[in-house]
Amino acid sequence: MFMGDELKKFALNELKQYDGREGRPAHVAYNGKVYDVSESFLWMEGDHQGQHVAGNDLTDDMKTAPHGEEMLERVRLVGVLASGSEEKEG
Known about the structure:
The chain has 90 residues and is mainly beta. The protein has one domain (8-82): Cytochrome b5-like heme/steroid binding domain (Flavocytochrome B2, Chain A, domain 1). The protein is built from one helix and six strands. The chain has one helix at 12-15, and strands spanning 8-10, 27-30, 33-36, 47-48, 52-53, 76-81. The strands form two sheets. It has a four-stranded mixed sheet. A two-stranded antiparallel ribbon has the order 4-5. A hairpin with a 3-residue loop joins strand 4 (47-48) and strand 5. The longest helix is centred in the N-terminal third of the chain and has 4 residues, at 12-15. The relative contact order is 0.28.
């Protein structure tokens, strides 16, 4: 996917709705980008091996992860995380 207008902007409170539970998609943010991890067997029901839950910004958590951001290359980029001043306008 190309960077551009087709990427959805997610406010942090909106991202929380994408928790992978009860059939909802599972999305996570990292370094301002939002990824869909719904199809990954490592994110069943929005849970990543009991360590993380979908619907959150994992930027800080990745610093101590046993893997790097290259793992996110395996999932689909779906949006960008809006900064505080850009939180959902309407």
